[in-house]
Amino acid sequence: MASIATLLPPGHAERLRDATRGWYHVITCENWPAVAQACERHQARLAVVDLFAGGRADFESVRQLKRQFPRLALVAYVTPDVDRFGDVFDAGRQGIDALIVANRDDAAPALLAALARAESRSLAALVRRSLGPADPVVRDAVLVAVNFAEERLSPQRLARLLGVPRRTLALRLAGAGFPPPRPLLTWGRLIVAAHLAEGSHRAANRVAAALGYPSGSAFRNTCQRYLRATPTEIRARGGAQYVVRVLLRQVQLSREPIRLGRPGRRLALAV
């Protein structure tokens, strides 16, 4: 089971523990150094913290955690206060991947959705590095497909978010060897699903529910269709990194010329 390191008041910690029961092992920490130790010792992928645990927003500790654990998803769980609005607004620029507002966003379904959103956004650095030099529209399309995996985007909304016509988006993706918008959105969801299952034994039904699949069977069928593997096999082969590798391998193959003819004669057809 995946672990969450927490630095929270008792009431918030209890609500988080109840909402994530069966999903995560929740580790209670007393200070920021203890959060770092828990992330190291238990390989926690998530940290849920009260930004104001020491009385003021400690963004330096946030930055240190991000430097030490680049793939760590950081979630701020805060109590609203007019004097804190400026710091809460600034949280996204300081490395916070998701925000939970007490008594507004912390019912169990909303809280789990926030954690899934944070985990998907923490993948951005891995995916961006894997893409390397790329058409900016293509790169941003892949990152949006990952960052918004739990929202079930349509191709039309993907294009709107990127600020380009849908036809233009499809042409740019095809020119770079990437799948069309709708399959690309499925790849984004598969990358996040594989990440959610890393280092754990979550049932496919749980991962499917977190990402809005109608059933565990629908999720497993998608894994077979796109990856020729079961969720368990995907986890054993490397999780999110494996899915990214398969996608990029297909992109590379789609950009290679097709060679026809007898030995000694070659005809290259660009695809």
**What is the molecular shape?**
globular
- The main sheet orders its strands as 2-1-3-4-5
Distance between the termini: 44 Å
CATH architecture of the largest domain: Orthogonal Bundle
In DSSP terms (H or I, runs of 4 or more residues), the helix count works out at 14
Taken in chain order, the helices and strands follow as: EHEHEHEHEHHHHHHHHHHEE
CATH superfamily of the largest domain: Homeodomain-like
What portion of residues is helical? 40-55%
Q: The biggest beta sheet, please?
A: 5 strands, parallel
Q: Which spans of ≥5 residues are poorly predicted at pLDDT below 50? A: 258-271
| CATH fold node name of the largest domain | Arc Repressor Mutant, subunit A
What is the CATH class designation of the largest domain? Mainly Alpha
- Which structural class best describes the helix and strand composition? alpha/beta
**Rg value:** 20 Å
Strand content: 5-15%
Number of domains: 2
Whole-number mean pLDDT: 82
Overall strand count: 7
Keywords:
alpha/beta; two-stranded antiparallel ribbon; Rossmann fold; Arc Repressor Mutant, subunit A; five-stranded parallel β-sheet; single chain; disordered C terminus; 7 strands; globular; 271 residues; 2 domains
Describe the protein in words.
It is a single chain. This protein is of the alpha/beta class. Strand 1 (2-7), helix 1 (10-19) and strand 2 (24-28) form a beta-alpha-beta unit. The chain has 14 helices and seven strands. The chain is 55% helix and 11% strand. Helix 7 (136-147) packs across helix 8 and helix 11 packs across helix 12 (216-227). The radius of gyration is 20 Å and the shape is globular. It starts with a strand and ends with a strand. The protein has helices spanning 10-19, 32-42, 59-68, 85-90, 108-122, 124-131, 136-147, 155-162, 166-175, 181-197, 204-210, 216-227, 231-236, 240-255; strands at residues 2-7, 24-28, 46-49, 73-78, 98-101, 258-260, 267-269. A five-stranded parallel β-sheet has the order 2-1-3-4-5, sandwiched between helices. A two-stranded antiparallel sheet has the order 6-7. The chain has two domains: 2-122, Response regulator (Rossmann fold, 3-Layer(aba) Sandwich), CATH 3.40.50.2300; 124-255, Homeodomain-like (Arc Repressor Mutant, subunit A), CATH 1.10.10.60. The model is unreliable at 258-271 (pLDDT under 50).
